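During the second half of the funding period, the structural biology subgroup turned its attention to how the target accommodates small molecules. The most pressing case was cytidine-5'-monophosphate, which had performed well in the primary screen but for which no bound structure existed. We therefore specified the complex as follows and requested a full 3D prediction, including the ligand pose.
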Amino acid sequence: MSVQAPIVTVDGPSGSGKGTICKLLAQRFGWHLLDSGALYRVLGLAAEHHGVDLADEDALEVLAAHLDVQFKSSAESEGVQVVLEGEEVTAAIRTETCSQAASVVAAIGKVRAALLERQRAFAEEPGLVADGRDMGTVVFPQADVKIFLTASAEERANRRYKQLMHKDTGASLQQVLDDIKARDDRDMNRAVAPLKPAKDALVLDSTVLTIDEVLERVVQEVNSKTSS
Ligand code: C5P
């Protein structure tokens, strides 16, 4: 039996539903939640605030190593509050510009290395649910359960478009699909930690599954692998 806190990794492209599944899983088991994408988003935003060019890899590495970010769970906002240098940026890091900036800085090996230990520190009792692109392949290769959640690009664009409609951004479905494909392309084809399922991951396609169906399948997997 493992003496360390159990770890469940959930990797996959944006819009696959992994954020929602991870939140629900963490609630269900009462475990910690690592939203690793938020770290890359915060770094993208910090670069903008400090006027750091996204092509300046050395400056981004320094920024990543000294990133003053806190993740606070609060009872009222049922998620995690993200605070960068004392300023609440929970909503600010969710813009499309920030998504694209995140995927640019995330393609830099030195930046990923600078953020590695910070992510591993989240693995504490009673357990961790880790949401990202390389959780099962690079950050927690020893994880007890590895899930790779995917869905067709069209379905993921549809989901994102519906979310954006409430925010009145004026983005068309085609634009959302193009952005998703651009980000997929960058995430899957980069040299360091490309998005791909770990060899021992359970691959789930959520295109035709409801959130409840995905959740139940993952809970089954966690129970069967961690109850000993
Ligand atoms: O998951 P989220 O959409 O918030 O992630 C934003 C971007 O951060 C992704 O498009 C990806 O480029 C990057 N990312 C990553 N590795 C992770 C999590 C996110 O490269 N573990």
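Two results from this model are relevant to the next phase. The chain has a mean pLDDT of 92. The beta strands are 7-11, 32-35, 69-73, 80-84, 87-88, 128-132, 145-150, 202-205.
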